[in-house]
Structure formats: structure tokens, C-alpha cells
Amino acid sequence: MTHDKLVRLVIPEDLIRDYEAAHYWVDFPAGRIVLNIGQPFVGFDGFVGRNRLAIVTACNPFSNILADAENDARQALLIEAVAAAGLEWFPASGVDAQEKWVPEPSLAILDPSDEQLDGWMEAFEQNAVVVAEAGGPAALRLHPRYTTDSTRAVGEAPTPTEQTVGPKIEQANTSPRAGRFEAAWGDGVHVQLTLSSRKWAKVQAGKPLTVRGKGYGYEGEFFWDYWDFSGGMNGELAVRYGRPNEGDYSAVGWDGTVGEALLRCDIQE
């Protein structure tokens, strides 16, 4: 699937300026170095034949803050993906210049391709990565579906083919969790999904519902899982999956009834 068939990603310009003002450090064996956007990167001493470094994180998708446990799980999947690509990496972090954000654990990856970086930004829902070429300045590489918000008039809403990203005012999910589901297939794929009471009520009422799960790693690659509910408790449930960089989620990993996949139901009075 080509990017022009996908929803364009509107990244607010003030968010991009925050990224550009941040400091990015890397812990090499010889010591810590700091990258700043627009300044030359001279950290390749001792890495013969290496010409590129990129700082990538899987934390806080599209700058929306997650709990530490969720970020740790996402970061572990990124490490698996980088290892599967056969690339070397070092610990890194992005530090907000104004100290508004908690530093994000990151990986400083040696010699990744543009295609790999774009794929990881899609898979882990990241607005940008930092890239430094040998002898050149550090720069942002923005999400492959990025479009500027300056092309719209002030106050004009995004079009149906645009998705605006950035920190949400309400980040906590206050809905009671009511239903938990589990599905497994193939050689070791195991996924779970927890529904809020509102979504669980839709399932029980027999209304069609599709929910994206948290994703999973398999053999070094990242996949999204999509759960299709229909027909109530005795109705059908199918769990589809696919790679984000391909955009095809038609493969079915598990199918059965809603009741067969239900692990727990917390009745909300």
C-alpha cells in the first residue's frame, strides 16, 4: 500500500519545534555524546565504515503519554525489530529542553535505511526520528505520512483523510474495564484485549465492533491485531493481523465465538 492511499498525518508545528529544541544523548562505550538538531555530529570515531545514526523510540505514540509498563513493552518490541534487522544499537534518550516531558528511552541505531526508519515510525506510531549522517548535522526525519498544518486556515478542521496528532488533554481512560479476551494462533502468537464497559456493552447488545489491540512482536517484526465482534455473546469474533508498513490486515489468526475468547467479565452495577 502506498502512503498516498493512507490517512495523512498532521503534526502541529509547535510540536515539531519542541522536537527540534530537544537534546538527544547517546551512551557509546567511550562515553556519552549529545546531539542537537542542526549541529554537526562527530560521534563516529571508532566506528569504521559506519556512516549513519538514528535515534528511535517506541514510547508515547504520537506524543501521547503512556504508563511506564506500556512503554517498556513497546520498547522491547522495538529492540526485537532492530535485532532482527541485524543492526547495532546503543542506549539513547530524548530530553525536552524545557523539561516539560519525562525523558524517553530510545535506541541509537547504526546505519538504518530510510525504509526501516519509516517502517518503525509507522509500526510504533512515532511522529519523527533523529538522523545524523557522518560529517553532517543532526536532523529530524518526519513520519512518512506527515503533512504540515500550515496549509489550512486557522481554525479549519482536518479533512477526513487527515489525522492530527499530539498530546491529548484527557489521557487517562476513566471507563471501567469490563471484558478481557484472549486469542492464540500459529507458533507462539498470543494476544489479549481488554474492553471498557462502554465497548463491552456494545458487544453484549450484538452491535458490530472493531477494536485494535496493543500489537505484538513475532520473529523480530511488529504486527497490529484487530478484533472484529458481531452478534453478541454467542456471535462471531475474528482476530485479524498485519504489518503496519504494508497496511494489509486481512489475515485472520483466530476465529470463533465471543464466549470462547472471553477470559473475564467484570459486571458493572
Written account of the structure:
With 269 residues, this protein is α+β, with helices and mostly antiparallel strands. It folds into two domains: 3-147, no CATH class; 177-265. Helices cover 18% and strands 38% of the residues. It is built from five helices and 18 strands. It has helices at 13-21, 68-84, 114-123, 197-204, 258-261; strands at 8-10, 23-28, 31-36, 52-56, 89-95, 104-110, 128-133, 138-142, 146-147, 162-164, 177-185, 189-196, 209-212, 216-218, 221-230, 236-242, 251-257, 262-265. The strands form four sheets. The chain has a seven-stranded antiparallel sheet. A hairpin with a 4-residue loop joins β7 (128-133) and β8. It is elongated. The relative contact order is 0.16.
Secondary structure blueprint with pairings:
Layout: E1 8-10, H1 13-21, E2 23-28, E3 31-36, E4 52-56, H2 68-84, E5 89-95, E6 104-110, H3 114-123, E7 128-133, E8 138-142, E9 146-147, E10 162-164, E11 177-185, E12 189-196, H4 197-204, E13 209-212, E14 216-218, E15 221-230, E16 236-242, E17 251-257, H5 258-261, E18 262-265
Parallel strand pairs: 1-9, 1-10
Antiparallel strand pairs: 2-3, 2-5, 4-6, 4-7, 5-6, 7-8, 11-12, 11-18, 13-15, 14-15, 15-16, 16-17
